[in-house]
């Protein structure tokens, strides 16, 4: 599964180089999206923007960053869920409004984006891309409210779904979250300004001190006068995406005062208690399986070892592989250390199983490398339902856990045994109440109502 994207913003109290700060912030958030990157900067009059397809260090260089002068900047890294992977859908979205130019960067999905797009088209608006982020920006531009703050509030109240936003005006940086807080957003303090980021790991790279999370349904404004905030809508429940803890967030990030590494370590310990196994070595599927594997090893007292090596230089490529290379599948990304697995009973720890094809390839890799037994342990419950809030999941028909029993999945992936972490122990590992988490992909309880046409399809619009 892939997350939609990462957003970043920086407000300098003095003239500085916010584009370079945004560059480093996006570099730290690269794991959230590798298809496109962009930075927009305001110099108090105009907004300049540069974006392109590829990784952050492919899209930007010293010359480009030096040309993005100003005091405020926002940035975005993208993995497409809504809208195809083309430059027109790269962010930030820059648009002229009656309140002046604005730039918008968005993490999440609007479940009512198609209705809003249709409404705007009837009013004469045209769209260059196909993302719901462009719809959100156009909603602000179409508002008849007297000032920008009122237009933004009106827009956010009409947008349903998941969104963590950073918005750039000529003189302000604005951060906002949806009323349920499905996607994360944090605020940090610099010596001479403020930063906003999808994860705290991007605050660390700039030496920013974490201040707090943007609250659910809150708009936070950074300006020359300092920080101000207001609540535009209150939801009945908080629902931070549980897969931030399971997979998406970097392990050095902190979400809602919970360290991600510690949560994953605890998942591994609980998994060892729930599904013990007689084995010689515990090994992770890198990188997200590492903390859980260490926790499993600590609890089971079975040695931890690295038996799978990841090619860390695989990112987005514009070169289509030949059919022969494509058939190699997971071998492009992972290679076993034969000496580490030969003749041994191996426990492979991964964070999830989606379609099952990758897990089957991994089991075959380890077995072909000489393992005597291959046991699979998953540090989350079975993924039973599609997500509609900004995670790229398949249709329900393609989710293996929605169609097969655990034993059926074990046979399909060809493992000697298979065990999933229970929902109860997952929640206990995170140390947050279940009512404060979005668990829809695991239990079907969607915190924001899904339109009938979407729920019947059980997929994202591509």
Task: Walk me through the structure.
With 462 residues, the protein is an alpha+beta fold. It has two domains: 2-236, Glutamine Phosphoribosylpyrophosphate, subunit 1, domain 1; 259-311 and 321-433, Rossmann fold. Helices cover 29% and strands 27% of the residues. The strands form seven sheets. Strands 4-3-5-2-11-10-12 form a seven-stranded antiparallel beta sheet. The two termini are 15 Å apart. The model is unreliable at 316-321 and 457-462 (pLDDT under 50).
Question: What distinguishing features does this structure have?
Answer:
single chain; 6-stranded antiparallel β-sheet; 25 strands; 462 residues; 2 domains; 27% strand; globular; Rossmann fold; Glutamine Phosphoribosylpyrophosphate, subunit 1, domain 1; alpha+beta; 7-stranded antiparallel β-sheet
In the sheet with the most strands, the strands line up as 4-3-5-2-11-10-12
Question: Quick one: CATH superfamily of the largest domain?
Answer: Aminohydrolase, N-terminal nucleophile (Ntn) domain
Detail the poorly predicted runs: 316-321, 457-462
Beta fraction of the residues?
25-35%
Average predicted confidence as pLDDT: 91
Shape: globular
Percent helix, as a range, is: 25-40%
* CATH architecture annotation name of the largest domain: 4-Layer Sandwich
Q: What's the structural domain tally?
A: 2
Largest sheet: 7 strands, antiparallel
DSSP summary: helix tally: 17
Give Rg in angstroms.
22 Å
Q: Given this structure, which CATH class of the largest domain is correct?
A: Alpha Beta
Distance between the termini: 15 Å
